[in-house]
Amino acid sequence: MQNLSELFNIFLHLDHYLSEIIRNYGTLTYALLFLIVFCETGLVVLPFLPGDSLLFAAGTFAALGDFNWGILYGSLVFAAILGDSLNYEVGRYLGPKLARHEKLKFINQAHVEKTQHFYDKYGAKTIIIARFIPIIRTFAPFVAGIGNMSYRRFIQFNVVGGLAWVAICLAGGYWFGNIPVVKNNFSLVILGIVTVSILPAVFEFIRHKYQKMS
Length: 214
Hints:
Helix content: over 70%
Radius of gyration: 18 Å
Mean pLDDT: 79
Order of helices and strands: HHHHHHHHHHH
Shape: globular
Strand content: under 5%
Number of strands: 0
Low-confidence stretches: none
């Protein structure tokens, strides 16, 4: 419970943590951000890492001159695309095991099923849409690999989704993060971003439960 509390605290105070990291590590912060985005998108066991909120905070600091926009955007897009590609390959490798109903303790089957519902509704566009939905974002490329989507088709949606996700989130922080009312209530803004991000997944979960009951 204490670990969850600490994680929630980091989510709410990303501005303070990121400010301290920039101050202590300078340009190495680019590598840290790259690693977090890569792990959040590429490792199916780490869907709880900050995504949208981290990019928004990074965009805010880019507006202050702490980051070079080109390097920040390019490195995070590369991390997002590379992460999804790794996740796709892991899904393709584990697909046969799941087809044989082998139990994989590190895979949350409920998240896999929820993501599959998105594919049933949106098709391959799920790769793009999922970029903006925590949890689903991490599982979408994994499920694409399980479903044997061709890599040529997957990489097209992967690149478009990565470019759009990083651009929109960074730009949001760059343009709005330093508005006084936002800056003075940054923790609430981050909480709002996280809440809005997960709403589609919550609504989809409720809809699915309602359909099963009716």
